[in-house]
Design goal:
The complex is a heterodimer of chains A (463) and B (235).
Chain A (H helix, E strand, L loop, with lengths): L1 H45 L1 H10 E4 L2 E4 L1 H9 L4 E5 L5 E5 L11 H9 L1 E2 L2 E8 L2 E6 L14 H48 L13 H54 L6 H31 L8 E4 H13 L15 E7 L1 H5 L1 E4 L1 H17 L5 E9 L3 E8 L6 H6 L10 H12 L3 E6 L5 E8 L3
Parallel strand pairs in A: 9-11
Antiparallel strand pairs in A: 1-2, 3-4, 3-7, 5-6, 6-7, 8-10, 11-12, 12-14, 13-14
Chain B lengths: L6 E5 L3 H14 L3 E5 L2 H11 L3 E4 L2 E2 L2 E2 H11 L4 E5 L4 H10 L3 E4 L4 H16 L1 H6 L3 E3 L2 E4 L4 E4 L2 E4 L2 H12 L4 E3 H8 L8 H15 L9 E4 L3 E4 L5
Parallel strand pairs in B: 1-2, 1-3, 3-6, 6-7
Antiparallel strand pairs in B: 4-5, 8-9, 9-10, 10-11, 12-14, 13-14
Helix pairs in contact in B: 2-3, 7-8, 7-9
Classes of the chains: A alpha+beta (463), B alpha/beta (235).
């Protein structure tokens, strides 16, 4: 739900930002155009400056008003299309490009009218120069004239009106944003809740109505498909686990016969020494198969979570000691492919703090993981070795580091740990890793200076 | 051996395994071994021969071993051992929960089968004899648990209750290492943590009473970092 609120907040902020940016752009463009227009009018069209200069260039010569050549140049540079000068009686005493339809004499009324309005459709500008009234005609195709009166009161209130208008606009925009945001939130909420349920592995079950009808329908269909797939996967996992359990069950009876007869042959004094040894090897290999079957069965159950953990409160140090004692007491099978069990010694290092630690764990499984790791060290060093297991505890986990004076775990084994297609020889290690994982921990490998690795098993201190 | 006179009935659907088990038992000395391949045949055999012990497979062609077990138990209290290819903990616990005397998982070593059969027979038919001789021999010294004393050269030294409990636990597992944890659990019913020194003190007292030279013990041996072991024979 937090994420939905975040989306709504973002949406509102974005809408606000868009409106602000558009208004800002408009203001900039409006001001720019206004400024340019005013500048153009001032300089080339209205040209107060030009009109004043033109007035100065008019002079009386032999009773006639004439313009100097400089004055005429200025006139040509402006955008005025014609010009004339009226004297106090309203007669045109000077003219420049004056069209024929324009009268040469005006009454006071006419002057007053055209100075505020049009003269024969020409917008005009007037300028008082000495006793003369200069009249300039503008291009009627290009310019229009607009005269305006504003009340002083209105003029005073313009800034206030503008502020009020801006504020009112902002409030309306804000209300719209909130209103649409809330509606958006309302329509999105069931969808968001459905997706959240989906992420928790439940069915989405979104009501298919309103604006989000189509989206809800699609999510519901995806949810249905997911459920179907989950069920299929679960069925497949179950079938696989059952299949492995079935095979391992069926293999046990024939294996009993092999073990039994091999054992009989190995003790049959009528056979020669070599044949008895061969029978002994058969027996030992069959026992390895027995261990592999048990490991395979357990590994498949752990992998597909078919084996519930039998959790109980236990002392982590006691588990380790019992495991080591089992090796000494000969209760752990140590038969390897080659000769008999090697000469070994197991040293246990448990600090004061580690001694006090209790964990909630499946004791049997934990012992099995440690047994696999210690057993590996002993089995793979036929010439004998010393195994040291040091137990360490911190706030979150309990770990056992298994080191030996032998050759250590080869790099190829460590690299193949996560590869499913590799050989079964590392099943014991994998099983240890799975057991660690089931207890919220992991199996890690620590590189020795020599190149090979030592194993460290850790489990969560809470579980 | 007394055990060999007992009759054993083995029920398993696999004919070859049946003959192997029969051969293993007979070679060890058991004089009469009966075999059956189904629940029906097993029950008939049980009625006609009245065996002293039965070894039952769980998966049988006309029913399961658990049902056969119940039928037999209704009529007799003979020791019964399950022999199964199922190694699921639930099956094992179910079998033992029904009151079976032991549960062996296939594949098994012939020696394992023989040891378990012997142990079950001994437990069922020789209880009294075992109780009659509860003396722990440690060379010249003898411990009499019933009276909690050690006898040596005509003198008697008493043992405290805790010392005796420790010694009994070690004796139950004689020759094998018993961890500190098992000892503490047996004697104080608690975890080892907090009892480190107490346990050491009790072992020292035991050694003073049982050893010629307590600082170089010959009977109660230390397995460094793990626990103690009661030696089987004097080194």
């Amino acid at each position: 739900m937090k994420s939905l609120l975040k989306i709504i907040r973002r949406y509102s902020l974005t809408v606000g930002a868009i409106i602000f940016v558009i208004l800002l752009c408009n203001a900039v463009v409006f001001l720019g155009i206004g400024y340019m227009t005013v500048r153009d009018m001032d300089e080339s069209v209205y040209g107060r400056d030009s009109m004043e200069r033109i007035g100065a260039e008019l002079s009386e010569e032999e009773g006639e008003i004439v313009i100097s050549p400089e004055g005429e140049d200025i006139l040509k540079d402006t955008s005025f299309v014609w010009a004339m000068a009226l004297d106090g009686a309203g007669r045109a005493v000077w003219e420049w490009r004056l069209p024929g339809e324009i009268k040469r004499s005006y009454t006071l009324c006419e002057v007053s009218s055209f100075s505020r309005w049009y003269l024969e459709d020409y917008p005009v500008r007037t300028w008082k120069s000495g006793d003369l009234l200069l009249v300039f005609g503008c291009d009627k195709e290009r310019l229009a004239r607009y005269d305006m009166l504003i009340s002083v009161e209105m003029f005073t209130f313009i800034p206030i009106y503008m502020k009020a208008a801006v504020i009112a606009n902002l409030v309306i925009i804000l209300l719209f944003i909130l209103c649409f945001g809330f509606r958006f939130y309302q329509s999105m909420r069931p969808v968001a809740e459905g997706v959240e349920r989906l992420s928790l592995g439940e069915a989405a079950d979104i009501p298919e109505s309103g604006a989000m009808e189509e989206l809800a329908g699609k999510i519901n269909r995806v949810s249905g498909k997911l459920k179907e797939q989950q069920e299929m996967l679960a069925r497949r996992d179950e079938a696989r686990t059952e299949w492995i359990a079935g095979v391992s069950h069926d293999i046990r009876t024939p294996l009993s016969l092999i073990v039994g007869y091999a054992d009989k042959l190995s003790q049959d004094m009528s056979l020669d020494e070599e044949n008895r040894r061969t029978a002994e090897k058969m027996k030992r290999q069959s026992l390895i198969i027995r261990q592999l079957i048990a490991d395979l069965n357990l590994t498949s159950k752990l992998l597909y979570q078919a084996q519930p953990l039998k959790l109980k409160d236990c002392s982590a140090a006691a588990v380790l000691r019992e495991c080591a004692a089992d090796f000494y007491n000969g209760e752990t099978e140590l038969s390897s492919g080659g000769g008999g069990a090697a000469d070994f010694a197991i040293e246990i290092i448990v600090g004061k703090e580690a001694e006090s630690v209790r964990i909630t764990a499946d004791e049997g499984l934990l012992k099995r993981a440690l047994r696999n790791l210690i057993g590996n060290s002993i089995r793979h060093n036929e010439e004998g070795c010393q195994v040291t297991v040091s137990m360490r505890v911190d706030q979150s986990e309990v770990s056992w580091l298994i080191e030996d004076t032998g050759r250590g775990i080869p790099e190829t084994v460590v690299r193949n740990m996560d590869r499913t297609e590799s050989t079964v020889h590392i099943m014991g290690l994998r099983l240890a890793a799975q057991i660690a994982k089931a207890h919220g921990g992991k199996l890690s490998f620590i590189r020795r200076s020599g190149g090979n690795y030592d194993a460290e098993l850790s489990v969560s201190a809470g579980k | 051996m007394e055990n060999y006179r007992y009759e054993i009935l083995v029920v398993d659907d696999n004919k070859e395994l049946l003959s192997l088990i029969a051969a293993i038992l007979k070679e060890d000395g058991y004089r009469k071994v009966l075999t059956a391949q189904s629940v029906k045949e097993g029950m008939e055999m049980f009625h006609t021969s009245r065996p002293d012990m039965a070894i039952l497979d769980i998966m049988l062609p006309d029913g399961d071993g658990f049902a056969l077990f119940r039928q037999m138990r209704e009529e007799s209290e003979i020791p019964i051992l399950f022999l199964s290819a199922k190694d699921e903990d639930e099956d094992r616990l179910f079998g033992l929960g029904l009151g079976a005397d032991d549960y062996i998982t296939k594949p098994f070593l012939p020696k394992e089968l023989l040891l378990r059969v012997r142990a079950v027979l001994k437990r069922t038919y020789h209880m009294k004899e075992e109780k009659a001789e509860p003396v722990i021999c440690l060379g010249e010294r003898k411990v009499l648990p019933e009276r909690a004393v050690v006898t040596f050269c005509g003198e008697e030294t008493p043992l405290t209750a805790k010392e005796l409990a420790l010694l009994m636990k070690l004796n139950q597992n004689r020759g094998r290492i018993v961890t500190f944890d098992s000892l503490c659990n047996a004697v104080w019913g608690d975890f080892y943590y907090g009892y480190e020194n107490t346990l050491m003190v009790h072992i020292r007292h035991l050694r003073e009473k049982l050893e010629d030279d307590p600082s170089h013990p010959e009977w109660i041996l230390t397995a460094r970092g793990l626990g103690y072991r009661l030696a089987k024979v004097q080194p």
